[in-house]
Amino acid sequence: MSDTPTTKFTDLGLSEPLLKAVRDKGYETPSPIQAQAIPAVISGRDVMAAAQTGTGKTAGFTLPLLQRLSENKGKKVSPNNVRALILTPTRELAAQISESIEVYGKYLNLHSMVVFGGVKINPQITRLRQGVDVLVATPGRLLDLYNQRAVKFSQLEVFILDEADRMLDMGFIRDIKKLIAVLPRDRQNLLFSATFSPEIRALAKGLVNKPLEISVDAENSTAEKVTQWLTAVDKKRKPAVLTHLIKENNWQQVLVFTKTKHGANKLTKHLEAEGLTAAAIHGNKSQGARTKALAAFKDGSVKILVATDIAARGIDIDLLPQVVNFDLPNVPEDYVHRIGRTARAGNTGQALSLVCADELDLLWGIEHVIQQHIERKVIDKFIPANELGESREIKPLKQGRPPKSKPSQNSGRGRGRVEHKDGQRSGGNANGNNTGRNNTGGGKTKSGNDSSRRKKPEYDGTGPKPRRSIQK
Ligand code: AMP
């Protein structure tokens, strides 16, 4: 997947146990982000990288992190302490990062652990007593653990903030600032974000110290590899069009995005009634149900996975060929994240959007952000009665963060109150676990949890409302 064929993994300063794990994984050349980030992180520098999922960024920070920690193995971690902290917005992403740590670190003797909400806290507290080398966490649960004195940061060497833009979108800024305030000053910082918006730069100011800035132009390169097209369709006929396309083209693995949890459930039922195998993942599903659905989708026993945006965040499936936007997202950047699910690691893919007349302004917003018109195709059997208006002329993006599209008339809400982001509310019986097992738990859904009270769009992996005892 590399654009820099002259760089080899062996050129980057990685130790043999890590190179062996990379070879086992079948990677031949480092991706651009890896080629740049790995030596910088090994040298101890702070790094600020604009790269989104799909660029190989996880290995870009995990490999050098493990290298540094294994070099300093003499430093034994004390009870409740952590040597490296990786903060990430969603449970799925946290689970996947910890899985990567396990894979890349399999020939090293380092201990890692993942913590997120929606599962019992006590097993996490117990496990933390031994201390861990690498802790992967979502912000809310980590604050909870900190407030219960289950985790201490006095031995922290490296702090990694992953998907920082997403963290801000999800309203985690206060939690992040509180956490940063309790970390030791002398530490290495890595910040990853899809974009360097003014908000991210402001956050970076208080975080990174003379960082190496890396940008791998992920969004454009992703967009280039994905064949994007749309078809105009009446809202009511969307399920029929989707079924038609899946059957007609014999699509074997399709990730479908809906705006709401209810929409995801309804569509899944429709597809099943049509004789297709489908499963839904969203915030009302227990962690166990989500993990199960994802596994079935990966092994091919379920062909269609219907997901809301946040639930789908971090899903990493090699060679995912087909993404369908059943509804357009309210936030244009979500479109970029969605289509980034396909064409991963240099593969090509196809992203189709089913667009009804009242989603026109959402389409305008998306086309503005991706700076291109999406090709329109007509499906003869489904010509809409309500015509979809024309695209607008593409104006150049302003510096900084791309503007958000206004909510469409029928989409209900604007960006500040993001209806489609589902509150991650599953409770359950799993525990904070060793990353190797990646036991993300199988819990029941709690009703009346706090997502309705929060302004945060989707409060992922946070469990109980964090106590606000950390003062800046
Ligand atoms: P990430 O951006 O970290 O989510 O990685 C996206 C995908 O690229 C994952 O499936 C990785 O396993 C894969 N990947 C990461 N690094 C490489 C590499 N150097 N060569 C091939 N695939 C890679």
Automatic annotation (TrEMBL):
It is found in: Cytoplasm. It holds the Pfam family DEAD. Residues 7-35 form the DEAD-box RNA helicase Q domain. Keywords: ATP-binding, Cytoplasm, Helicase, Hydrolase, Nucleotide-binding, Ribosome biogenesis. Coiled coil: none annotated. One of its GO terms (biological process) is ribosome assembly. A motif (Q motif) lies at residues 7-35. One of its GO terms (cellular component) is cytosol. Its EC number is 3.6.4.13. The keyword Membrane does not apply. It catalyses: ATP + H2O = ADP + phosphate + H(+). Residues 225-390 form the Helicase C-terminal domain. InterPro entries: DEAD/DEAH_box_helicase_dom, DEAD/DEAH_RhlB, DEAD_box_RNA_helicase, DEAD_helicase_RhlE, Helicase_ATP-bd, Helicase_C-like, P-loop_NTPase, RNA-helicase_DEAD-box_CS. DEAD-box RNA helicase involved in ribosome assembly. Has RNA-dependent ATPase activity and unwinds double-stranded RNA. PANTHER family: ATP-DEPENDENT RNA HELICASE RHLE (PTHR47959:SF13), ATP-DEPENDENT RNA HELICASE RHLE-RELATED (PTHR47959). This is ATP-dependent RNA helicase RhlE. It comes from Colwellia psychrerythraea. The gene is rhlE.
